[in-house]
Amino acid sequence: MITLLPPGVEVEEAYGDVPGAPLQPGEADAVARSPAARRREFATVRHCARTALKRLGIPPAPIPRGAAGAPQWPSGVVGSMTHCSGYRAAVVARAGAFRSLGIDAEVHQPLPDGGLRLISSLAERHHLAELVARNAQVHWDTLLFAVKESVYKAWYPLGGVMLDFVDAHVELDPDSETFTARLSPPETAKGDVPVFFEGRWRVADGMVQAASAVPNGAAHRADS
Ligand SMILES: CC(C)(COP(=O)(O)OP(=O)(O)OC[C@H]1O[C@@H](n2cnc3c(N)ncnc32)[C@H](O)[C@@H]1OP(=O)(O)O)[C@@H](O)C(=O)NCCC(=O)NCCS
Q1: Lower CB density within 10 Å: C or N end of the chain?
Q2: Cα-flanking dihedrals φ and ψ of residue 3, to 5°?
Q3: Is the minimum distance from the CB of 156 to ligand 1 under 6 angstroms?
Q4: DSSP state of 52
């Protein structure tokens, strides 16, 4: 994940759970009735986040789950977290430098049958067919999913409402391993919200990873 984020973003990753990773006040309720594996990943990814925050000079602070599951970062901080089998990651940055961050990691395997149709437009499926013809080793469907999840995680703290998968039109560049996403958010979204996202992706270590960082000054709905 480290190579996917610009300077100014702190990244911390774990390739397994950290035994006994402590929770901070206000965090435990969200997973009180969850299976032990979920409680471990929840605590480990917050351990990663607090490690990354420390590099920003921010002391350990609670990161509870807020509306729609979005993490509530300490004042003056933006960030994002992800976990998949055998991997947890958190990224944080000063809010003065970035408006929002979004990351996602998925196991590098095909989406379940019918999954691609649920998350893509016809145009995106044509785009993916071209990418498959070029490199059939990559599970482009899962990469598209990870990109959309990363964009959603960056977008939600700004827009404040759920985005449908077809509300984002994504293009993947296989040469530069970058992506663009143009959003058509619902009218209920807050006004001053970017609709154009850019980011980087990679396929490595049995995973697909995607990250999007929204710098201050990114285009808004009003001026795009
Ligand atoms: C919420 C969601 C994005 C999580 O993604 P996932 O691949 O299932 O799971 P990950 O492990 O990668 O990420 C989970 C983390 O995402 C973060 N997250 C959850 N909801 C979030 C939100 N609304 N906004 C930002 N971050 C969110 C949390 O930190 C969560 O970890 P935690 O519960 O331990 O704090 C996904 O389950 C979802 O609801 N997607 C539907 C909406 C969507 O993606 N639309 C695409 C539009 S382009």
Answers
A1: C
A2: -70, -10
A3: yes
A4: H
